[in-house]
Model the fold of this input.
Amino acid sequence: MTPLANATAKGVGKDWELHARAVLAGYRLEVVPYALYWYRTNAGRRLSGEGGGVTGVEGVSIMAACCAPPTMSINNRRPLGDAAPYISQLHQTVQSQKLQLVEADRSRDAAHLLAHALRRLYCRTGARSTQGTGFLLNSGFDAWSETRDAEDGSALLAEEWVPHVAGYTLGREDRGGAKSRPQQASRSMHVHLANIGLVGGGYQFVMVEQQVPEPLLLQGWSRVLEMDGNGEPIDYSLYADIHFVDGTQHWAYYTPFDQLKDGWQHTYGILDFQKPIVGISIVALFRYRGGTVIFDDIQLSKLEDEVCSLPDI
Done:
């Protein structure tokens, strides 16, 4: 058996190299959309940004080693070698996904306009209640506790919020004026990424246990302190994986924040599906960019309970 990955190479992500070589050798990769294992990073590990990962030169070397024709004479040299059909297919896939993202943004904007128009009609009399119970615990990041880890030492974590990959830290700044707690609490979730190859944030899984389909409202606040790089809208967002009672899932629902906006900003999304939801994984997500952002007052509630409390656009 011929090895697909170079076991002696230094500074190369073996899984990335293995996948690249496998695809270029004609194998097909299948994605399992479940978390099958957990991997933690810190400042001394490969994914910390301190010289780890696949560099551009190493990536080109992998492509060249996989894809170069057996002979490289002047007469039969092909610039892309055997990788040409794969690169063409990848280009078509990227273009298709970009079109899907554009259409999703248009649909989201239209839904927001419709939601605000209906909200004005629904909430006009002021008689609607906005005192519903939210599903997320510690939604304002009031409660923090110290946790200890044999390798990484102790750290403060927001109760009920699990660190997502690089995680988050306690911030001594909040947006103020939150209904859920006194203003002097001054606590929030800070996510700092040293470079654009990292992922951070916090997540919480909540049981919803609907008996019948019912729309939910996901909303929250965030602020950019510093930002380096430019990615997809999903990379700075409130993200949700939705699990239905019948065992099916809806992956990668998100409502984005604007990385170019100054000051505190609000985002919301309406989760409206044709079958009842059993549980949702909510992630305050910041990834593939450098810088620091703050998250605060993230809420998941029944739409009818909180629609009248949405900020005006």
Notes: Confidence is low (pLDDT under 50) at residues 46-58, 68-78, 178-184. The longest strand covers residues 216-228.
